Amino acid sequence: MKISNETKVGALTAVGITFMILGFNFLKGKTLFKTGNFIYAKYADTKGIMVSNPVFINGFQIGSVYDIENADRNLSSIVIAIKLKDNYNIPVNSVATIKDNPLGNASIQISLGDEKKYLKPGDTVLTASSAGLLGDVMNKLGPVTNQITETVQSLDHVLKNINSVFDPATKNNLQSVIANINKTTASLVVSSASLQAMMNQQTGTITASMNNVNSFTRNLSDNNDKITRMLGNVEKTTENLSKADIDGTVGQLKTAIETLNGLLAKASSTDGSLGKLLNDKALYDNLTNTVRSANILMDDLRVHPKRYVNISVFGKKDKSGPLMAPLPIDSTNLKK
């Protein structure tokens, strides 16, 4: 049976169209027969997700979107079929979210859970809505906006309080305070000038004091040997004192004091000669009379020497009576 050229061209065209459709679906991630590991995710808003968009876990692509179909006629729920490259262990409490990218294609990001049970082929993974890039920015700007609003309200309240406080009397007080501050500033300028003068390197008081300190330390350095010798002498003196028999000396001093106390006790008593001499009134009176008689005798000897020694051949003997009492000092001087 002879086949015409037209039949051959038509058959080749059909085969080519078939292979083109199969290749296009293969490039999109779809095969003629639905084989492999599939899991499903339900969303209320797919946010522009398309077939063959990637699916990531921790930044690693584990598969791609295989098919998208509505779960009901109202389009309230859309089911996305995810084809996995391998049989991965995905915990059953993992969450899949759609991440839209303004500069590229959207993708699905699966956050792993902590359960020990894993999804099986054909199971449905948990989903959550993502606010997207703009939504994240708005969520972050929301608290800042609220804080700005509260700050503006607080600032308005503060300004009202300031307006209520700044009456004419308060303004006058503020002017007085500012004037006092100006005076204080002028005083600080004068004080700083005085301080600068004190700290002047040539004529300042602090410089002179430091020079005196330097001179003092220089003198100490120059007399270091003398100070060392002096300290050595002090050390030798303290060493000699430490070697001295201080306890024996103190003991001897105590013995001497006890002996002196004994002598004073004997002198105070009337038993010994010294005690009787010091305490016997009769002895004192006798000594006093003896001294008085001696004084009378000496005065009589001076006043009447002829009575005791007569060397004059022609003189008369002094027949006056003896003295009975010592002469006064003036009378004795007159007789001389």
Radius of gyration: 68 Å
Spatial sequence of strands, sheet with the most strands: 1-4-3-2-6-5-7
Shape: elongated
**What is the assembly state of the chains in this entry?**
single chain
Q: How helical, in percent, are the residues?
A: 55-70%
**Fraction of residues in β-strands:** 5-15%
Report what the structure shows.
Helices cover 57% and strands 12% of the residues. It has ten helices and seven strands. Mean pLDDT is 78; it is low at 331-336. It is of the alpha/beta class and 336 residues long. Among the domains are: 1-33; 34-130; 281-335, no CATH class. 6% of the residues are buried. It is elongated and about 220 Å long.
In short:
With 336 residues, the protein is an alpha/beta fold. It has helices at 5-27, 132-165, 168-198, 205-222, 224-243, 246-268, 273-279, 281-303, 305-308, 329-335, and strands spanning 37-43, 54-57, 60-70, 78-84, 95-99, 107-111, 126-127.
